[in-house]
Fold:
Amino acid sequence: MYILDTDSIVHLMDDPPVLTCPHCGVHTGAVPISYPRFGLVQRFALSEVGIVCCCTACNRAIFLRSAVHVRGNPIELRTPEVVNRGVEPFEVQYLSGAVLADFNEALVCYANSCWNAFAAMCRRCIQSVCESFGAEGTTKVQGQLKDLQAMGVADAETFEQLHQIMLTGHDGAHPHLPELSAARAAVLLQLMKDVLYQLYVRPAKIREAGELRRQASVR
Structure:
């Protein structure tokens, strides 16, 4: 992306960046409607700038942040990142109580790139999962994690850190563990989704399918 000395954005409107909208989830064009002025970027020697775009699918505003790569003429920008990231989708209607509340808060932390807060809420969510299943709760979660590890969803070091966060780590923000990176947070999110899907969503869908078959058989 470039900022021209004429402050024209026609080239960006004709060929807008393509990304996944944080509001509607559609992979579409994001047309810039508010763009940094060339003279101000040069005058204040900005190292990063903000851009407001309009989603071509839902027409809502998308806020982007981009680092200045070359402050020349034109000014060259690095690939922008979405500031207002949307909450990751999950079939939360199959969750309830503390598990639902904790996982919803974990998703909000993830959407705001608060990786360590996300890890803490994942730990709390797993505790709620174990409590909801009673004495066998921890065994169920451990069994699901072993299945995922066997599938090779993460390298051994990553999986060990995430296993500590989810099951064997201390409560709270895990000060004894290395800080969680964005990449490992993404893996942790998938682990959480898989565990919750297998323990809550899949059984609920099987029960729903069974009830539909029962209703069809009595008609």
Summary: The chain has a mean pLDDT of 85.
